[in-house]
Every structure is written in structure tokens, then in C-alpha cells.
């Protein structure tokens, strides 16, 4: 695996040209092989990069600019179309290499299943790991229509792998009754509908811990993020998610990796969703990487 050049031509604004000198590695996971409604999230990472040119390099929220953090954009991982298991294996191998080199992996999806091999690889290095999960959906199914490799299963997979009590979900407003029952019976934290205030209540208990954060863009209301595969009414605003990102930044948790998934440009006619996603990535890099 080579890191002396990116997989693809477009890079996120102000990315550093040298992998070895970078603290953070940004990469795309262009996979939507298991979606159950609208495909297209495999094009998300490339579009997020393209619209990032419209970002300011400075964050007035954090009083930092992108030059303050050296991050390398490795481009999109080449994934075999339609082969979910092989794609997940390639993602896991990539992230293990990044972690072995002492760097922080920052992923862009792609459907949410791509987060599963990343979280598994991060847990292999940090065995006290906690997961913070922002989403409209529980993603706690064991399978979807008989398929265990599904975008509806990644949080169940990681919860069973690291223990449900180490998983904290926020903004959830959609899922099967059995999923909510399983979470409650097994001690997993689920905050229904709301994000910021419940997050602030939880963060003190995670201070000092290694944390991985995964954000499904559909945690936002469709009015703020129409460009996603499975929209669900009743979500939060982009302002609230920004405030949540900043709350994590000031909480004392040690963020060891993070991702943002499910941006689907084909439904994003105003490019609102991609632009919001690129701003979130800027704020996460500047807020969570010390």
C-alpha cells in the first residue's frame, strides 16, 4: 500500500502533500452496495472534496485554521463494485496501516456499513474504546432481508464486539421496536430525537477515554441535508450538530478516529448537503485533533 500519492486527483482543501509528516489521514470509502432505498452515497467523498474549495480555512468557532493541523488526503480507497465483504476487508486493512503509523483515521462514506471495519480496527488498537454515534436510525439490526452485511447493521456489530454499554447513540428517530428493546435490555445508551443536551450529559463520563465518532448525515432534518439515501423527517439542525462537534472538542475525550457517511450527491441538487458535510469535517479536524 503506497502513501506517497493519493488514490485520486481531488483533495480536501489545504490537505498536506506528505503522508509521513501528517497527523491525520483523510480517506474516502466509496461503497453503497447494501443500501435498501436510494443508492448514490459512493459518490459522496469525491463531492465533499470538490465543494471544500468553497470553505474558509479558518474556523471562527475554534479560532484555528487548517494550517494548524497537518492532514493528508489519501483519496478514495479503490473498492470492488458489488463485493461487500472484500470492500470491508480492504477498508479494514487500510485503517490498520494508518493506525500502525500512529495517525488518526478520518473517513468519508459511502453507506454506513463502511464504519464497521474502521471501528473494529480502531478497537483493536484502543481496547477501552467508546463509540459516539449520530444518526436518524438505530442501525441495530442483525440483518436486512436476510443479509447480515447491511447498512442497517454497523452499530449492532460494533456494540456486540466492544460491549453495548460502550456505545452512545444520539438523534435516533427511526428503527424497529426490537432494536430499541435490545439496546435498553443490554445497557446501550440511545438518545431519541435530541442530540446536544443529552450529549453534554454523557460527555463528562467519557472524559479521558478513547472515543471514535461516527456521523450519519441523515441525523440532520431533510430540510438541512436532502442529499442522502434514507431521509427521515424530524431531525436536528446543522447548527445543533456543529454545537455538538464543539461540545466534544471541549469535553476532554480523546478522539482517536471519526467518520461522516451517507452523503449522496445525486439527491443534493443545491449541493447543500455536501457543503454542510465539508464544513463539519473542517470543524472535526480542527476541534478534535490537538
From TrEMBL:
Metabolic or biological pathway? Amine and polyamine biosynthesis; putrescine biosynthesis via agmatine pathway; putrescine from agmatine: step 1/1
The catalytic activity, as recorded, is: agmatine + H2O = urea + putrescine
Write down how the cofactor binds this protein.
Binds 2 manganese ions per subunit.
Q: Please give the name of this protein.
A: Agmatinase
Look up the domain of life of the source: Bacteria
The record ties this protein, via Gene3D superfamilies, to: Ureohydrolase domain
Quote the record's binding site residues for Mn(2+). 112, 135, 137, 139, 216, 218
Tell me any Pfam family this protein matches: Arginase
Task: Report the sequence similarity comment from the record.
Answer: Belongs to the arginase family. Agmatinase subfamily.
List the PROSITE patterns: ARGINASE_1, ARGINASE_2
Report the EC number(s), separated by commas if there are several.
3.5.3.11
Which organism does this record belong to?
A: Ureibacillus massiliensis 4400831 = CIP 108448 = CCUG 49529
Identify the CDD domains for this entry: Agmatinase-like_2 (cd11593)
Keyword Hydrolase included in the entry's annotation: yes
Q: Name one GO biological process term.
A: spermidine biosynthetic process
User: What InterPro entries does the record tag this protein with?
Assistant: Agmatinase-rel (IPR005925), Ureohydrolase (IPR006035), Ureohydrolase_dom_sf (IPR023696), Ureohydrolase_Mn_BS (IPR020855)
Cofactor entry: Mn(2+)
GO molecular function list = agmatinase activity; metal ion binding
UniProt KW keywords: Hydrolase, Manganese, Metal-binding, Polyamine biosynthesis, Putrescine biosynthesis, Spermidine biosynthesis
Summary of the function given for this chain in its UniProt record: Catalyzes the formation of putrescine from agmatine.
Amino acid at each position: 500500500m503506497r502513501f506517497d500519492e493519493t488514490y485520486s486527483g481531488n483533495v480536501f482543501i489545504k490537505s498536506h502533500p506528505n503522508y509521513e509528516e501528517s497527523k491525520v489521514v483523510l480517506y474516502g470509502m466509496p461503497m453503497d452496495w447494501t443500501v435498501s432505498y436510494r443508492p448514490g452515497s459512493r459518490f459522496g467523498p469525491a463531492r465533499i472534496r470538490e465543494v471544500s474549495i468553497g470553505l474558509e480555512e479558518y474556523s471562527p468557532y475554534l479560532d484555528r485554521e487548517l494550517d494548524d493541523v497537518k492532514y493528508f488526503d489519501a483519496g478514495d480507497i479503490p473498492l470492488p463494485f458489488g463485493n461487500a465483504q472484500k470492500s470491508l476487508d480492504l477498508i479494514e486493512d487500510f485503517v490498520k496501516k494508518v493506525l500502525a503509523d500512529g495517525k488518526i483515521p478520518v473517513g468519508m462514506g459511502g453507506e454506513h456499513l463502511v464504519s464497521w471495519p474502521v471501528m473494529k480496527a480502531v478497537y483493536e488498537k484502543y481496547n477501552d474504546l467508546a463509540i459516539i454515534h449520530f444518526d436518524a436510525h438505530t442501525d441495530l439490526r442483525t440483518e436486512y432481508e436476510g443479509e447480515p452485511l447491511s447498512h442497517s447493521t454497523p452499530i449492532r456489530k460494533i456494540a456486540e464486539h466492544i460491549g453495548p454499554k460502550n456505545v452512545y447513540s444520539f438523534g435516533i428517530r427511526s428503527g424497529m421496536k426490537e432494536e430499541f428493546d435490545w439496546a435498553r435490555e443490554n445497557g446501550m445508551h440511545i438518545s431519541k430525537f435530541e442530540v446536544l443536551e443529552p450529549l453534554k450529559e454523557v460527555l463528562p463520563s467519557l472524559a479521558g477515554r478513547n472515543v471514535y465518532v461516527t456521523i450519519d448525515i441523515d441525523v440532520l432534518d431533510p430540510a438541512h441535508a436532502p442529499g442522502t439515501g434514507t431521509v427521515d423527517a424530524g431531525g436536528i439542525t446543522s447548527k445543533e450538530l456543529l454545537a455538538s462537534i464543539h461540545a466534544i472538542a471541549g469535553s476532554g475525550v480523546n478522539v482517536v478516529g471519526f467518520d461522516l457517511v451517507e452523503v449522496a450527491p445525486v439527491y443534493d441538487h443545491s449541493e447543500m448537503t455536501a457543503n454542510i458535510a465539508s464544513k463539519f469535517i473542517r470543524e472535526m479536524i480542527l476541534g478534535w485533533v490537538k
